[in-house]
Amino acid sequence: MPFKETMKIFKKPDCLTKIPMRYCPGCGHGIVHRLIAEVIDELGIRENTVGIAPVGCSVFIDEYFDCDMIQTAHGRAPAVATGIKRCLPNLVVFSYQGDGDLAAIGTAETVHAATRSENFTTIFVNNAIYGMTGGQQAPTTLPTQKTTTTPYGRDTKIHGFPVKVCEMLASLDGPTYLERVTVSKVAGVLKTKRAIKKAFQLQLDGLGFSLVEVLSPCPTGWGITPQKACEYVDEVMTPYYPLGVFKDLTKK
Amino acid sequence: MPFKETMKIFKKPDCLTKIPMRYCPGCGHGIVHRLIAEVIDELGIRENTVGIAPVGCSVFIDEYFDCDMIQTAHGRAPAVATGIKRCLPNLVVFSYQGDGDLAAIGTAETVHAATRSENFTTIFVNNAIYGMTGGQQAPTTLPTQKTTTTPYGRDTKIHGFPVKVCEMLASLDGPTYLERVTVSKVAGVLKTKRAIKKAFQLQLDGLGFSLVEVLSPCPTGWGITPQKACEYVDEVMTPYYPLGVFKDLTKK
Amino acid sequence: MKAKVHIIESLCKECGYCIGACPKKILEPAPYYNQNGFHPVRITNMEECTGCSLCYQICPEIAIEVQKT
Amino acid sequence: MKAKVHIIESLCKECGYCIGACPKKILEPAPYYNQNGFHPVRITNMEECTGCSLCYQICPEIAIEVQKT
Amino acid sequence: MRQEVIISGFGGQGVIKAGVLLATTAMTENKHCTHFPSYGAEMRGGTANCSIIVSTDEIASPIVNEPDTVIAMNEPSLDKFEPKLKKGGLLIYNSSLISKKPSRSDIEIIAVPANEIAEQIGTTKCANMVVMGTYAAKTNAVSIDAIKASLSVVFAGKDKFLDINKSALDEGAKLK
Amino acid sequence: MRQEVIISGFGGQGVIKAGVLLATTAMTENKHCTHFPSYGAEMRGGTANCSIIVSTDEIASPIVNEPDTVIAMNEPSLDKFEPKLKKGGLLIYNSSLISKKPSRSDIEIIAVPANEIAEQIGTTKCANMVVMGTYAAKTNAVSIDAIKASLSVVFAGKDKFLDINKSALDEGAKLK
Amino acid sequence: MGIEKYKKGTKVLIKGNEAMAEGAVRAGCRFFGGYPITPQNEVPEYLSWRLFEVGGTFIQAESEVAAINMLYGASACGTRSMTSSSGCGISLKQEGISYIASAELPIFYANMIRGGPGLGNIAPCQGDYFQATRGGGHGDYRVIVLAPNSVQEMGNFPKLVYDLADKYRIPAMILADGLLGQMMEPVSFDFDWVDISKIPSKDYILNGCKGRERRVINTLHMDVDVLEKHNWHLFEKYNKIAANEIRFEERYTDDAELIIVAYGTAARIAVDAIVKARKEGIKVGLLRPITLWPFPEDVVAKLAERVGKILVVEMSLGQLVEDVRMFANGKSEIYFYGRPGGVVPNPEEVLGVIKRAMKSNIKAGEFCHLKKL
Amino acid sequence: MGIEKYKKGTKVLIKGNEAMAEGAVRAGCRFFGGYPITPQNEVPEYLSWRLFEVGGTFIQAESEVAAINMLYGASACGTRSMTSSSGCGISLKQEGISYIASAELPIFYANMIRGGPGLGNIAPCQGDYFQATRGGGHGDYRVIVLAPNSVQEMGNFPKLVYDLADKYRIPAMILADGLLGQMMEPVSFDFDWVDISKIPSKDYILNGCKGRERRVINTLHMDVDVLEKHNWHLFEKYNKIAANEIRFEERYTDDAELIIVAYGTAARIAVDAIVKARKEGIKVGLLRPITLWPFPEDVVAKLAERVGKILVVEMSLGQLVEDVRMFANGKSEIYFYGRPGGVVPNPEEVLGVIKRAMKSNIKAGEFCHLKKL
Ligand SMILES: Cc1ncc(C[n+]2csc(CCOP(=O)(O)OP(=O)(O)O)c2C)c(N)n1
Ligand SMILES: Cc1ncc(C[n+]2csc(CCOP(=O)(O)OP(=O)(O)O)c2C)c(N)n1
Ligand code: SF4
Ligand code: SF4
Ligand code: SF4
Ligand code: SF4
Ligand code: SF4
Ligand code: SF4
Ligand SMILES: [Mg+2]
Ligand SMILES: [Mg+2]
Fold first, then answer.
1. How many degrees, rounded to 5, is the angle at CA G59 between CA G57 and CA G61?
2. Is H293:H132 a contact under the CB 8 Å cutoff?
3. Which of A251, E31, F164, G242 shows the greatest Cβ crowding within 10 Å of its Cβ?
4. Strand ranges across the sheet with F32-39
C-alpha cells in the first residue's frame, strides 16, 4: 500500500511556508523537508512543534518550516534540542542535521543525546559531503570519493574510514529507533516518510531518542548531474551504508 | 603461563621516575601505570616514546613516566596524539585517558581518531566516575550508582545510559584492536599487561588504532574501601561492561 | 482525465527527476527559460496522466501539484 | 628462603590489596604509621614467601619489590 | 586608465570565472588589477557577482561602487547593478534570461542573447565567455587575443573546453 | 576579638570539616566569620588546609597570613605553617604522625596524639575533633558546648558519628 | 512555600558557590547544564539535587560546549537557565555565548576564575577579565558582567543577573574566583523567593505556534545590511545598559589622595590595606566596580580628574587596568600592581605598594607597573 | 627545488587565502589541521594537495577544537604547523590557544573574520579584534597578531609569523577578513623557499629522549608560586616582543591635521578616502598598525601629541578604537566610524566622515562616535 497516507491533492504541505527553497537542482534536502512537513501535518502537531536548523545547506530551514524554529551552532542541535525538550516536554522537537554537522563537529552531542535517550527526533541527511562550504570531505565521504579536500579521492589510509552513524548509535543502549533510508527513488521516498512518521510518533509516545538517516543526493558537491547523483546513491552509497532498521525498541 | 614476562626481580620499571604517585589508597591508576612502563621497558622503546597525559586524576603522569611527555586539554589527547604521530611517525605514541576525558568531552576526538585509525595506542581507564573533580557522574557511571551529581543514583530515565566505549568503537571500521580488561585482581592485571603489550606491538607494526579499556577501582570517588572497590569492579562493573576483545584485525 | 497536474514553473530547477519517475513519460523540459534560467518541466499529455503522483513525490522543489479527479 | 620481599614503607597507602592477594597470608599492616599517616604493610614470615610476586602485581604504589633467590 | 567592472549572475553561470579571466589578462598586460567575488544572501542557486578593477595605477580599495561596466547575466543582477552604473557607463545584459528592458537612458546598453549563442556553440556553460567577448571588443580594456591566451591559465586542465570558449569569445565580440 | 586559625593536614584527615565546624559555631555565637579551604599542589593524598577568621568586627580579607593559631595534623603542615605563626601564637600538633619537635620558642605548643586518642575512641576519623577540643578548651574562641551544638548542622545526616565526635572533643579538651 | 529552602533574611553559613546556586534557584532558575571543573564543582553538585526538589532540570552535559548550547535551547523556550565553569570551560563556551548574544537570549553563566593560561591551577585568579568584558567569542557583542566580593553578594546577585538578562535580553554573568566560590561566610538572601509562574511571559520564546504567528530564533543574517542593522540594534541596547545599569562601590574616596581600583577578591584585600594605610595617615580610597561591563567609566573619569593617583590592584598581569587607563584619559597618574597565576596578595603587601605609589612622581597620564618586589 | 611552486619574485594572480597557504608552505609549514568554514575554505582546499606535494600532512579535523589540539601536538614535536578558520571556529579554538600560549609552542593560525556575532554572515568584517588582541581564551596571555592589507602581504606574512612564533615560542596569527581572503591580486613571494631541514632545531620538542633527558610539555602548575613565576616569565617575553616587533605603516602623516587609524581592509579604503580628501585640500594621514598586538602604542601616543584629531575607521562597532583611546591618553580628539556586520564602507563615505571630523570641535581627550548617517 504505497499510498497509505494519500491525500486527494498532492501539494505543498501546510507546515511549509511559501518561500521557495534555495537548494541546487536535484538536491535531496527539499524532498526530506516535504516529508517532514507532511508528517507534521498528518499528525496535526504543527502548532506544537519546534524545529532545529543546523549549520549546513539546510541552515535556512527556519524560513521553510511553518512552525517555531531555532537555528543553532554547527553540530550543537542535539544539545539545543535537549535544552528545549527538557524544559517543555510537551513540545514535539526535531533536529535536522547534515553529516558534517552531526557526525563530525557534533559527534559528542549526537552520541550523548542518543545515550541519554533524549525524547526528540533527529532527521540526519547524509550526503557524504560538506555541501554548504563547497564540497569538502565529510566524515561520511566514501572511500575513493573526490572532494575539494580529498582531491585525489578519500584514501582510508590517510583520511580514515567513513563513520556509519546508525551502526555506531545502535551500539548504545539509549536510542529507541534508528533507521537508514534513501530518497533517490520514489519507493525510497515513501519509505523515508514512513520512517519519519514512526520517529515522530514514538516521540509523541514518550519513547525516547529516534534518528532517521537519509542518504541524499548532492549533485553540486559531487560534481555530477542530478540523475547521476541518484544513481550514485543507489550504486555506491547504499552498498556502503546498508538501508534498514538498526534499532527498534518499539518492536519488543 | 601467567609469568611469560617474568623478570627475576620485580621492582619499579625503568620507564617510571622515582617520584611517588599521588593517588588515593587503592586507586587503579598506579597499577596501570606500572604495566605500561613494564611494556615499554620490555619492548625497549622508552627513548622513542611520547606519552600523553589527559586531564583527570592521571594529569600528573607526565611526572611519573620517564619518557617524553605532554599534558593536554581535557578530552583532546587523541587530537594531540594525531598531531604528533603524523609528524613523527617513527615515535611510539600512547595516550592515557579517563572516562570523563575520553567518553564525555572527548567523544568526538576519540571516535574520529579511531575511525581514521591513527597509529597510536590509547589506554583508557574506566572508573565510572570523575575522580579528579570530586566524584561526579561520568558517562560510564553505572545505573543506580551514586555520585556527587547523581545523589539519588544514576537514573537512566533522567541521566541516560552509560556509554560502552569498546562496543561503540567496534562499530567503526577504523580501529584495529579493542579490548576491555580489569585490574581488580592479579589475574586481570596480568591480562591487562598482555593487552597493553599487544596494543603497543601493533602500533610498532604500523597497524593502526588500538585501545585498551581498563575497568579500574576508584575507592574515593565511589566512597568505599579499596577492597570493596575491587569487589564492585568484579560484581557490578564487569557484568555491565563485559571483558574481552571487541575487535582484533590482527587475527585475520 | 484521471488527474490534473500543475507545474509551478518558476520553482522548477530542471533536475529531471520527475521526468524519470513518470511511468507515462509525459513530462519534458520546456524549450524556454524560467526566471531562474532553467527550462521548466511541462506536461505533454494530461490525458494520459494517471494521477499516480510519483512526480510529486520525487520533486525536490515541490514544483508539482497533482490532483486526482 | 625462596624469595626476598622488600616493602618500601613510605610508599604504602594501606590499601590492603597485597594482603588479600598473598597466597601465603604473610602480609599484614604494621601497628605504626608511616610519614603519610598510613599503617604500612609488613611481612610476617619471609621464609614462607614463594616469590610468586602477586603482591607486587597488585600493589598500586609499587611499594613492594620481590626478588627470587 | 582605470576600468571598474561588475559581472553578476546566478551561481553556476560562471561570472566569477569570467572576472578571474579578465583580471588575469590584465595582469599579463602588466596592469594593476583586483578581483573580488561576492556571494549573495543565497548560498545555493542564488546570485553571485564579482568586482574587477583594472588600472595603470595602484589600486587601494578593491570595492566597486560605481562601475564603468556592468555585465548582468540574469534579471536580479540587472535590477541590482543597473542603478549603480556610472553615468555614461556600459551595460551588457543577457537578453536570453532577461526579458525586461533596462531603464536608464544615460548609459550605453548592449543586449546579448548569451544563452542562445552559447547553446548554439555547444553548451550554455560558455555564456559567460560570450559576454566577455562583447565586453573586450567594446571597451578594449583587454584584447580578445590576450583573453584567449589567458584561457589556458584560468581553465588549467580543462583543455577540451578551450575551443568552445574561444568561439564564444569570438561570437560575443561580434555583438559589440 | 579576632582569631585567625589555620588547620592543616592530609586530605582525608577532616581538616576542612573541622574548620567549617569552627566557623559555624562562631556564626551561631553571632560573630563574623570566614572559612576558606585550600588544596595543595597534590589533588589526591596531598595536603589540605583551611583558614578561619572569627571576629567581632567585619572581616575584609579572608586570607590568613599570620595566624593566631595553627593546628598541624601532619609533618608537612607543621613545616609549612609553624614559621607563619604570630609571635606568641598557639601551635597544636598531631604528635601521632609528627615525630619531630616544633622549633620555635616564641610560641605556645601543645602536642596532641590525635590519631591514638581517636583510635581509642573508635576511629581515626575523629582525630580532627580531638584537636578541635584542645583548641576550643585552650582558647575559648568558641565553647565546647557550642561546638557540640553545631555538630548536627555540619554533619547533618551522619548522626551515628555524633557521639564519637563529642567524645573526641571532650578527650581533646582535656589536653589543653 | 515548601520548595523555599531559606527564608529571606535567615543567616546560613555556606560556600560562595552554593550561595550562588541557591540564589539562582531562588531567582527562578529551572535549568542547569554544566560540566564539572574546579573550583566551581559545588554549583553543579548542589543543583543536581536542588533543582530536582523544585521541579527543574539538572543536566551534567557531555562538555561545556554542549552545556552552553543546552542553555541556548532552554532559554529559547523561556526558562531561566544557568551554567557555570572556570578557565578552560569558559573558553569552550565562547562560540555559544556569541550565538546567545546575537539571538538576544537571557542566560546566566558564571566563571569562577582559576589560574591560567592553559590548565593552570585551581587557585583564585582574575585573569579572565578581558575574556569576560571584551567578549572572548567572535563578533561585536557584550555581556553584562557582575563581580561580587562576598558570599552574600554571590547569593544575591543571581536575582539581579536574571532580571537584567531578561530586561535586556542579554547573556549576563557572574565573574568571581575560587576564593569567593569556596569560601564560607554567613549569608542571608535579601530578595523574595521568585514564583516562576509570575515572571512576565516573553514574546519571543518558542513554545509552539498555537494561536500566534510562528517564531524564529536565528543568528544568521546573510544580507550584510540586515546584519549591520542587527549590530546597531545591539549597540543601542548596549548603550542603554551602559546608561542605566552601572554599579560600583566607593569607600573612603572623599578625601583620598590615592584611589585603589579593584574588584572581587582583590577589592576585599584592598579594603584591609586601606584601613591599615589610613591608620598610618595615608589617605587612600577604593573604587570597586561591581559591573565590570558596563564599566563605571564616568566614575573613573571624575576620580581621575579629582585625585592625582590611581592604583589598580588585580590578580592578573593587568587587564582591568586597561579600562582604567582608557577612561582616566590621561588625567591621573596610573599605577598597577598585579599578582597572576593564582596568588592572592596580602594586605601588608598592598600597603607597601600604596606607599610606593604615594612616593612616586610620574606625570599624570603616565603608567607605572609596580611589579612584585 | 622541485617542490617550490613559484620562484621568488614571480608574479601570479591568486586569492589571498591561497597566497597565505602557499606562503605558509613556502615558509616551512608541514602540518595543517583545520575544519572548513567560509570565507577561508581555499586554505584547507589548497593545502590538501599542496602539503601532499611537499611531503607534509594535511588533516581535515573533526572540528576546530580537534584541529587546534592537533597543532598542539604537531608543534610540540617541532613541526611548523598551521590552522585557519573564521568566527565561530576561532571561538572554539580559544581553549587550545590558551594552552599553546602557556606551553609556549609556536603555531600559526589565521582568522579570516566574517560578520558576527553568532553565525552572522560570510562577509568581510573586523569584529574579532578584541578576541585576537585580548586573548579570547582564559588567562593572562597574548598572541602576536599580524594584519595584512593586500594579497601580497597575505603571501608574505606567513614567513614572518613562523619566524616570530619560533623566536618567541608564541602562537602568532594573521587577522584578516573575507575580502583579503577571497580577493585576487598579483602577488610575488618576497622571501626564499625555506628548507625545513635548515630551520634551527628546538631544544624543547618531543621526539624521543634518546641521548638526552626526557622532556615534558605541561601547562598545569598546581603550585601558585610556580604558576605566578610562569606568568611573569610570559610577561617579560611579551614586553620583549612589544619592544622589538611592533610594525606599522604611516602614510601622509607629516603634515596631517587628522590621522586615520585603520588596519587591513579598512586601511585600504581609508587610503582612497585620504587621496580624495587631499585632492580637496584636506590634510589627512594614515596610521596602519600591522601588528595589532603588540600595538604601536608609542606611535599613537606621539601622533596624538602632535595631531589634534584622530579618526579610527573600523569594520566593527569599535574595538581597535579602545587601544587608540588608551594610548592617545587624552592628548587628541578621538573620532570613531564603524560599519559592523559585514559592510565594507566606501571611500566616499569615509571622506564624508573625515569632513565631519574636521568640522567637529570636541575637546582633546573626548571621544565622538560618528555613527552611520
Ligand atoms: C563552528 C563552525 N565550523 C564550521 C562552520 C562552517 N560550516 C558551515 S556548514 C558546514 C558543513 C556542512 O556540511 P553538512 O553538515 O554535511 O551539511 P550539508 O551542507 O552537506 O547539507 C561547515 C563546516 C560553521 N558555520 N561553524
Ligand atoms: C575543559 C575542561 N573541562 C573540565 C575540566 C575539569 N576536569 C578535570 S578532570 C575532569 C574529569 C576527570 O574524570 P576522568 O576523565 O574520568 O578521570 P579520573 O579523574 O576519573 O581518572 C574534569 C571534568 C577541565 N580541566 N577542562
Ligand atoms: S550543495 Fe549539495 S546539499 Fe547543498 S544545496 Fe547543493 S546539492 Fe543540496
Ligand atoms: S579519586 Fe579515584 S581515580 Fe582519582 S586518585 Fe582517587 S581513587 Fe584514583
Ligand atoms: S501523476 Fe504520475 S502519470 Fe501523472 S505526470 Fe505525475 S508521474 Fe506522470
Ligand atoms: S522534479 Fe521538480 S524541479 Fe525537478 S524537473 Fe521535475 S518539476 Fe522541475
Ligand atoms: S611474593 Fe607471593 S608469597 Fe611472597 S609475599 Fe608476595 S604474594 Fe606473598
Ligand atoms: S598493595 Fe601496596 S599500597 Fe596496598 S597495602 Fe600493599 S604495599 Fe601497601
Ligand atoms: Mg553533508
Ligand atoms: Mg574517571
1. 155
2. yes
3. E31
4. F108-112, F90-94, F69-72, F2-10, F47-55, F32-39, G184-187, G12-15
CB proximity list for E172: less than 8 A, separation 6 or greater: E112, E114, E117, E129, E130, E131, E132, E133, E134, E135, E137
pTM: 0.97
Residue nearest ligand 8's atom 1 by CA: D59
Distance CA A179, CA A165 (A): 10
State the residue for C-alpha cell 585498551: B212
- The answer to the question of residue G221 being in a domain is yes
Neighbours of G89 (CB within 10 A): 27
List the 181-210 stretch of H: residues with Cβ below 8 A of E: 182-186
CB G122 within 8 A of CB G114: yes
Is residue F20 within 8 Å of G15, Cβ to Cβ?
A: no
Region of H9 on the Ramachandran plot (φ > 0 left; ψ -120 to 50 alpha; else beta) = left
Please give the DSSP secondary-structure letter assigned to residue B57: G
Any domain includes G211: no
Helix intervals (H) in G249-319 = 264-279, 297-306
Output the domain CATH number for residue H325.
Answer: 3.40.50.920
- Report the neighbours of C using a cutoff of 3 or more CB pairs below 8 angstroms: A, E
Domain match, G183 and G70 both: yes
Distances in Å between the alpha carbon of E6 and those of A14, E80, E137, F95, G356?
A: 41, 11, 17, 88, 64
In whole angstroms, give the CA distance from residue F26 to residue F33. 7
Using the structure block, give the residue that is written with the C-alpha cell 534508528. Answer: A178
**Rounded Cα–Cα distance for residues H46 and H18 (Å):** 6
Contacting subunits of A (3+ beta carbon pairs below 8 A): B, C, E, G, H
Number of domains in chain E: 1
From the number of C-beta atoms within 10 Å of its C-beta (0-12, 13-18, 19+), residue F103 rates as exposed
Same domain flag for H68 and H186: yes
pLDDT digits (tens, 9 = 90+) for B127-149: 999 999 999 999 999 999 999 99
CB B178 within 8 Å of CB B166: yes
Which chain F residue lies closest to D35 (C-alpha atoms)?
F97
F134: domain CATH number?
A: 3.40.920.10
Of all atoms in ligand 8, which is nearest to the CA of residue D27?
Answer: 6
| 3-class SS of residue F9 | strand
CA of residue C15 to ligand 6 center, whole Å: 5
Residues of chain G with pLDDT under 50: 1
The yes-or-no verdict on residue H168 having pLDDT over 60 is: yes
Q: Is the ipTM of this complex over 0.95?
A: yes
Centroid of ligand 10 to alpha carbon of B52 (angstroms): 16
Q: Sheet containing H57-60: give its strands across.
A: H57-60, H31-34, H81-85, H107-113, H171-177, H144-146, H291-293
Which residues constitute the domain of residue G167?
A: 11-193+216-244
φ, ψ at F7 (rounded to 5°): -115, 130
Task: Write the single-letter amino acid at H213.
Answer: E
Reference G335, options G301, G295, G308; nearest CA is G308
Q: Which residues fall inside 5 Å of ion ligand 9, going by CB? A: A 98-99, 127
3-state DSSP assignment of residue F169: helix
Closest ligand 6 atom to the C-alpha of C17?
A: 1
Q: Which residues contact F57 (CB under 8 A, 6 or more apart)?
A: F2, F32
- Residue G256 domain-assigned (yes or no): yes
Neighbouring C-beta atoms of residue G163, cutoff 10 Å: 17
Domain boundaries, position E29: 2-173
Q: In testing the pocket of ligand 6, which one of C64, C65, C66 has its CB within 8 Å of the most ligand atoms?
A: C64
Position B178 scores a pLDDT of 98
Per-residue pLDDT tens over the stretch H76-123:
999 999 999 999 999 999 999 999 999 999 999 999 999 999 999 999
